[in-house]
Amino acid sequence: MARSVMKMFYLALGAVALIGGAAIWMARGGSGGSEGVTSVSSAALASVGEYEGYVEGSDSAPVEVVEFADFQCPACARFTILSGSDIRTGLVERGLARWRFHDFPLPNHQHAIPAHHAAACADEQGQFWAMHDQLFFNQGRWARDSRPTRRFREYAQAIGLDVDRFEACMESDRYRARIEAGKNEAVALGINSTPSFLIGDIVVAGALPYDSIKTLVEKAAARAAR
């Protein structure tokens, strides 16, 4: 029920901005000369993958999309809620793209690093993507909480984790260095906002709708096939 209410809230809040922004972006050509789209050098591309992140999809997919996101970023939550399901079913499950989530907690978000750590602790039990969804769909609750870790415990229980093991992981803070390393790699690539996406050899900034992501994936696949 909470997931449905939050989805309706974000749908109402984000639809106008997303549609309007996407229309401007597509009108300017989608890729190439549009605002928010930049090319990445081969040297910079070579460094991608040193930080593994979290991956879903087939290794044989022709295109990998790297999403640079912050769990406390409202635009990232809107993107996941509005486009995440379509991306999974329309691109990842069909083998058209492999999706990689890259930690990029922003310094102005007080609870971002603990949230990213909660996702890493869930990953220890094979449930990163379930926690990913809990954090984004419930962002309006935990982001305003003075003690968000108690919310994270609730989400761990909701997705069937061993809660004691999860809490021990959270208390250890053992993934903080890895999260910081992921952030530093993103900065080295020139990423300065969330969400941003590395698709082939271009970086696209903004909470793009599914159709725009799909078009960019298709263009990247065509380039890779030449």
Task: Please characterize this protein's 3D structure.
With 226 residues, the protein is an alpha+beta fold. Helices cover 56% and strands 12% of the residues. Strands 1-6-5-3-4-2 form a 6-stranded mixed β-sheet. A hairpin with a 2-residue loop joins strand 5 and strand 6 (202-205). Helix 3 packs across helix 5 (128-137), helix 4 (112-123) runs antiparallel to helix 5 (128-137) and helix 4 (112-123) packs parallel to helix 7. The chain is globular and about 50 Å long. The model is unreliable at 1-35 (pLDDT under 50).
In short:
By secondary structure, the chain is an alpha+beta fold.
Index terms:
226 residues, alpha+beta, 6 strands, disordered N terminus
Q: List the helices and strands in order.
A: HEHEEHEHHHHHHEEH
**CA-atom Rg in angstroms:** 17 Å
Averaging pLDDT over every residue, what do you get?
A: 83
Strand proportion, as a percent range, falls in 5-15%
**Residue share in helix:** 55-70%
Helix/strand class: alpha+beta
Separate helix tally: 10
Flag low-confidence runs: 1-35
The major sheet is characterized as: 6 strands, mixed
**Overall shape:** globular
The end-to-end span amounts to 47 Å
Name the strands of the widest sheet in spatial order: 1-6-5-3-4-2
By DSSP, the count of extended strands is 6
